[in-house]
Amino acid sequence: MNEIIAMILAGGQGTRLGVLTENVVKPAVPFGGKYRIIDFTLSNCVNSSIYTVGVLTQYRPRVLSTHLGVGRDWDMDRKNGGLFILSPYAASTEGEWYKGTAHAVAQNIDFIDQFSPKYVLILSGDHVYSMDYNEMLDFHISKNADATISCIRVPLSEAHRFGTVITDNISRVKEFEEKPKRPRSQLASMGIYIFNWPLLREILIKDSRDENSSHDFGKDIMPNLVSQKAIYAYEFEGYWRDVGTIDAFWEANIDLTRSMPALNLYDPNWRFYTHSAEMPPAFFGKEAKILNSLTSEGCIVNGTAESSVLFQGVILGRGSYVKNSVVMTNVKIGENCVIENAIISENVVVGNNCQIGIGENIPNEKYPNIYNSGISVIGEYVIVGDDVRIGKNASIGNFLNMEEMKVKEVPGGKNLRVDGLA
How far apart are CA 41 and CA 61, in angstroms? Predict the structure, then answer.
């Protein structure tokens, strides 16, 4: 019997990240120089001594499943417990996709039952944070709660993006509103829940039979439960970021380059684990300048990087200048390039004399809700030829060869896809 097991919801597409999630699920998006987003949730489990973890996948799971493997990099390749990848399956002659977060867990009741847990921890695999789940569990037990929601205070102007809770003076939840148009509380749900398993099991079975339910924890389970059971709000005061937009993702990465970042990647008592390729040490040539930047193994730097994150295997050519940018694994940047306020995905090749992130800050014409903060985004495996200019809020689709397409300029607010500029 396990006292507590964790179920990580990792099937969301993450459409607000644009080209970054066209080919990978959001939890598998690279972050912080050598990690993927899900690494932070998994590492929190390990550091909280939770070693029985189910990862519920759905959208484009290949990269995520390959990254997780059997859980060895998180010390979860165990005989008792361990890491389990749980995909939708055919319960009868017809397969069935997960219809919502609650439905995803309900489809795996048999998996949870085999461990006979006392508590089940529901987690999201697409947030970046550092949290000891034992402290939340202690709170849950001390309140004799049926369920506990982990919450964080956000500005009232941002509260509409979250589920919000209203509590009494002993932290018992009196109301739960999912993404209210006019928020009445700054206390936002982090998408982290602890349930007593017998209660959650009963609720999930009942909800799965409700044809009017969207089978979602935030939309259905929690709003209905607060009037019936003892639900408490655990107020978390540590580091937590929802990196679900281009702006938030870029900002959370760039924050790591500050002199005292809020997320401490260097704490020996709370390490973040990942699966990454074995690469040689980073090399800095005589003309290299590194200013307030992260560089990872395998980097070869002969240019200048300022306030930027260079992932493993990045090559930066002579005379090139990268500022306020996120440059992912195995990107090769030629000579005499200027790159500012950009996100460059994995395995991109940038030619010589290129300029990326230039011009006016014009919102993207086709996707103004995705590309609107002045950040240029290049998808994975793109080949950018010599002398190319890419403007602010421009996006380049995955797997494009701009040399073959003979594209020398993508103006600000424009998109380059297989069928050309749009």
Answer: 17
